[in-house]
Recover the amino acids of this structure.
């Protein structure tokens, strides 16, 4: 297949490119950075330098690429700016979907998240509603996710990859990055909130596999949702941070983790890092 990959130089995208090429696919990668374009070409991909907010330029780039599939791995998290990332989910997805439709592309694979579900007692499956009526400080994130997923579903064939919290090289969870700095400062809470994680290499493997998956949303995460009481001390040790203080209190309702049964049992995707316990120390 010929793949137009938006976000080709991001934490997941730069792992997706070699995986796609190794599987025999052709890749046209979109990046904002001319230096990243050279790296993509060195891997064997074609590269396009462009801005996802430039609707005309993006439409031209997608049409010129003549892709069988558009893949959306766009984020804007380098500076820790969640508002910028929400803008990518809303406005960036809109222009990418419009460009795909104009070019006659039938299939899209898009990155979403697995912690936008409404509150509940157990890890959330894909049929759990999104938390569109939650607290005001959360609604902007969830509305961005909803906007992304609604736009993507305009194509005849679509797969939404609801990634767990990404960790590994190039993420907030590598040594020296945002969450490691918080751990070192003692501001990363070891509390009752439950998270599901996925290593960036596993996120990339799911993206490649999703080229053949049926339409729908899929939780892409490891096998062990865990409370901060469990994972934060392991993460702190892995990045050389002090033992965290245990924070008392009940779990936030939406911080419930995600169930990966559909990916594993229906689609045959198995994470290489089945638990963050191994991933934090080996990644």
């Amino acid at each position: 297949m010929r793949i137009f990959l938006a976000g080709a130089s991001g934490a997941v995208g730069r792992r997706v490119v070699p995986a796609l090429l190794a599987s025999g696919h052709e890749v046209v990668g979109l990046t904002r950075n001319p230096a990243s374009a050279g790296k993509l070409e060195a891997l064997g991909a074609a590269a396009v330098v462009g801005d996802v907010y430039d609707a005309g330029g993006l439409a031209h780039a997608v049409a010129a690429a003549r892709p069988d599939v558009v893949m959306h791995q766009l984020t804007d998290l380098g500076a820790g700016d969640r508002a910028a990332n929400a803008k990518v989910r809303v406005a960036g997805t809109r222009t990418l979907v419009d460009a795909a439709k104009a070019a006659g592309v039938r299939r899209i694979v898009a990155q979403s998240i697995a912690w936008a579900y409404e509150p509940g007692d157990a890890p959330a499956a894909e049929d759990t509603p999104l938390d569109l009526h939650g607290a005001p400080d959360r609604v902007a994130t969830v509305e961005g996710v909803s906007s992304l997923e609604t736009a993507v579903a305009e194509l005849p064939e679509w797969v939404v990859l609801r990634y767990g919290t990404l960790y590994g090289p190039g993420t907030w969870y590598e040594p020296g990055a945002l969450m490691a700095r918080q751990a070192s400062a003692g501001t990363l809470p070891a509390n009752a909130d439950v998270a599901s994680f996925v290593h960036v290499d596993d996120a990339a493997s799911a993206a490649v596999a999703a080229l053949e998956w049926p339409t729908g949303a899929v939780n892409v995460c490891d096998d062990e949702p865990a409370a901060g009481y469990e994972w934060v001390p392991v993460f702190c040790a892995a990045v050389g941070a002090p033992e965290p203080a245990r924070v008392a209190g009940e779990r936030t309702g939406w911080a419930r983790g995600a169930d990966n049964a559909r990916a594993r049992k229906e689609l045959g995707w198995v994470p290489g890092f089945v638990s963050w316990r191994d991933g934090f120390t080996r990644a």
Q: What stands out?
A: The longest strand covers residues 107-113. The chain has a mean pLDDT of 95.
